[in-house]
Known about the structure:
Blueprint lengths: L11 E4 L6 E9 L3 H8 E2 L12 E7 L6 E10 L10 E8 L1 H13 L3 E2 L4 H8 L5 H12 L3 H11 L2 H25 L1 H4 L4 H30 L1 E6 L6 H9 L17 E7 L2 E7 L9 H16 L2 E7 L6 H10 L4 E6 L7 H11 L3 E4 L8 H13 L14 H22 L4 H19 L5 H9 L6
Helix pairs in contact: 4-5, 6-8, 6-15, 8-14, 14-15
Amino acid sequence: MDSMRDDPTDTIAAIATAPGAGAIGIVRVSGPLAFEIADAVTRPKKSVNAQPPRALKRSVIYDLETGEIIDDGLLATFVAPHSFTGEHVIEFQGHGGPVVLKRVFAAFLAAGARTARPGEFSERAFVNGKLDLAQAEAIADMIAAGTVAAQRIARRQLNGELSFAVKKAARAIQEALMFVEASIDFPEEVGDLNVVAVDTALSTAQEIIERLVDTAAYGRRIRDGITLVLTGRPNVGKSSLLNTLSGTERAIVTPIPGTTRDIVEETLILHGIPVRALDTAGIRETNDPVEIIGVERARTAVENADVVVAILDSNVGATFEDYASLDVLASNRLVIVVNKSDIADAEPLCALLRMRYDPISIIAVSATTGSGLAELIDEIVAVATKGEAWEGIDPLVTSARHEAALFSAKDANYCAQVTLRLGLPAELIAVDAHAALASLGEITGETAREDILKSIFARFCIGK
C-alpha cells in the first residue's frame, strides 16, 4: 500500500479545522518527525518527547526565520502506534483566525513537514491498520451527513458494524474453501468433499450478503436523499403544498393559472430522509412560449423523480385531462393527493380514484390547514423506501461501491453453491468462492485496487 502515498516516511501537516474564523483552530502533524518538528517551532524548549502522551501542554509557536511569536495555545502529543494514524501525531490548538492558522501551518512546513493531501491522515490510519476501508469511508460520511439519521448510520459504520457483517460472511466462505481446497490438495488423506459442510458454510455467507444487499436501497435514501416532484394542472395547489411541507413561503401562490413557470426547488427532511422537493409548472396545453418551456421541464422532472405526488383539486373534481395524466403516471412511485379538502368534501373523489388506481395511495389533504399532511409525509417516505425501515436493525449499506461489491459477492457465492449442488469439480467451486471473497475484500480494503483507494481518499477533507 505504500505506493499509494507520496512517501510513507514523510511527515505531513494540515489545518484540521474548517475554513473561516473560529474560536479555536487546530493544525495536525503526523509522521516519524512529528515530535522533532514540534520541538523546532515551540517554546519552552523542553522536548515534546518528554511530554506525557495524550496530554495537553501550553506552547508558543515561533517563526523559525524571525523568531517572532505567531501564536500560543495547547499542544497535544500522541505516540505511535496509539494515535489516529498509527504514527507519531501532534496537534496544536490555537486561535481560530485564518491568518494565524496559516502562519502556524507554515511554521510546521518550514520545520520539515509537507502539506497533506486530502484524506491522507485517514489513508495512513487505513494503511497502518487502525481502520479498515469501510470505516475510513464512514469518516467522510460523518462529516458530510446532512441529517441525524445519516450521521447515525455513518457512526455505526465507523464503529465497524458493516465491516463485522462483511467479515463474518467472508469467514463462512473461507470455512467452505478450507474443505474444498483440502479435497483438491489432499484427496487421499481427506477423501471425498464434505458437501454438507461446504453447503452450510456457503449458505450462511449467502444469507448475510443478501441481508446486506436488501438494506442498500433504504441506506442510499438516508445518505443521498430522494427527489420528490409535485405535479398537476395549474391552480390545484402545488405551490401551496410545497410551502406547507417546507414551512416557508418558498413558492409564489396566486389564483392566476400558470403562476409557476419554472421549477421551484426546496430541501426538506422527512422522517430523517433528505428530500429535494420540486414544484413544477402546471401541466397543460398552452401557447405561452415561456410556459411551454416550464411544462416541458415539469415532464422531465416527473420522469426522473423518485416519488411523484400528483395533485387534484377537490373543489373542481377530476377532469379528463387529470385521468389521462394519472393513467400515464400510475406506478409504485406515485402518490395521489386530493387537495383543498377544507373547501370541498374530498372523500367522494378519493373513493372514485381508489376504484381506478388501487393500490396507489390516495390522500385527502388541505395545504391551507395542514389536514392530511402527516399521512402524506408517511406515504412519501414509504414509497421512497418501499415500505422498509432498516435503521437500527441491521448494518446499513449506504455506498454504491459497497452495494456493487456485495452484488458481485452474492452472484459469485451463488455460483459456488450451484456448482457444488450439481456435483461439478471442486476446482470450479473454489474459483467462484475466491471471487466472492475478493468482492467482499473490496469493501474492507483487503483486495481493493490502488486506483479505488486513491479515489476514495481524494474526496476527504484536507486535514482528515
